[in-house]
Amino acid sequence: MTPSLLLSTDAVAPRERAPQWREWVWRHFGGLDSDLYGDTDFDGHLSASRAGDVILTRLEGGRHRVLRTPQMARRDEAAYLKIVAPWQGSATVHQPGRAGSAREGGWIIYDTTEGYEIDNPEHTEHLIVMLPKAQMAERGVHLAPLMARRVGGSAGISRVALETMRHTYRELPAMSETAARGAGELIMQLVRLSLLELAGHETAATQKTALQDRIRDHVARHLADPQLSIDHIARALNCSKRHLHNAFAHGDLTLASYIQQQRLQACIRQLRQGAGDARSITEIALSCGFGNLSHFSRLFREHTGMSPSEFRQAGHLTRD
């Protein structure tokens, strides 16, 4: 079998890539608006295949948001449960009264018959899986409270489901139509079992993981804001600072250290990729949320062993 759809902006003129991408997303996902956070440069790739009634799509592209209003959902006759499982980057799904976030190793499920919004605040590579809603109903499980929720992926049946979805997408080109249909049915069964487990085993651990995902997503979307702080996050997420600290209590980094690390990594990426060639190091540091330049330089040297200017020059020499 070959992919049923292959789309890439590589062959599209740069100024036409953003509108072309929006048109492709609208058509492929059955009515879905998108925007690029105001970015003018964009590269995107989309590849889709079917495993019986299940549609699997690999989507890679720059940061972007997608939106489906309730009116759009009502106009679409197709009813799917949809999964986003990041390979790279992050995604936050919003549906009325609910929100769920995931990074690599997790997945979120949501309902296309309701309105929804998905934030992808950084470069992303996602596996998107569409499952016919009528075939996903499980006796004794009310689906609505499970939508826009991070199901898991790090352990248990949700990890088996995630790995099966990934392996199925990769191996579909070598499968017969009969084998592909069987793989799609297996995916649906594993997702049903994952939802059953989620419905019956909501624990303090899963709540903590969900809060960590929400915090990381908020940090990614507001990294350039010099006002980003623990107080800022607590107000935005409507929770106490104690809960924020507890979410990172047993990790390698405190929340403050995590924000600092993410800002440093953003500066390093810009200097390494040459994106900062036309800008001063001061401009790059400010764009990543650093307000104290001497503090930034000290942290940068501690992390890389070089000053920012030495790091940029080393990158030039490597590219030359």
Description:
- The protein has 320 residues and is an alpha+beta fold.
- It has 2 domains: 5-201, Jelly Rolls (Sandwich); 222-319, Arc Repressor Mutant, subunit A, CATH 1.10.10.60.
- 46% of the residues lie in helices and 22% in strands.
- The protein contains 12 helices and 12 strands.
- It has a 7-stranded antiparallel beta sheet, with helices on both faces.
- 33% of the residues are buried.
Itemize the secondary structure elements and their pairings:
Blueprint: E1 5-8, H1 14-28, E2 33-35, E3 44-51, E4 54-61, E5 64-68, H2 70-75, E6 80-88, E7 91-95, E8 98-102, E9 107-111, E10 116-120, E11 124-132, H3 133-136, E12 149-152, H4 156-171, H5 177-200, H6 204-221, H7 230-237, H8 241-247, H9 255-272, H10 281-287, H11 293-304, H12 308-319
Antiparallel strand pairs: 1-3, 2-5, 3-4, 4-11, 5-10, 6-9, 6-11, 7-8, 7-10, 9-12
Helix pairs in contact: 4-5
Compact overview of the structure:
The protein has 320 residues and is α+β, with helices and mostly antiparallel strands.
Notable characteristics:
12 strands, 5-stranded antiparallel beta sheet, Jelly Rolls, alpha+beta, Arc Repressor Mutant, subunit A, 2 domains, 7-stranded antiparallel beta sheet, 320 residues, 46% helix
Large-scale geometry: globular
Helix content: 40-55%
For the largest beta-sheet, the strand count, sense and barrel status come to: 7 strands, antiparallel
CATH architecture of the largest domain: Sandwich
Helix/strand order: EHEEEEHEEEEEEHEHHHHHHHHH
- Structural class by SSE content: alpha+beta
Low-pLDDT sequence parts: none
Q: Identify the CATH class of the largest domain.
A: Mainly Beta
Q: How many runs of DSSP E, i.e. beta strands?
A: 12
N→C terminal distance: 42 Å
Overall radius of gyration: 21 Å
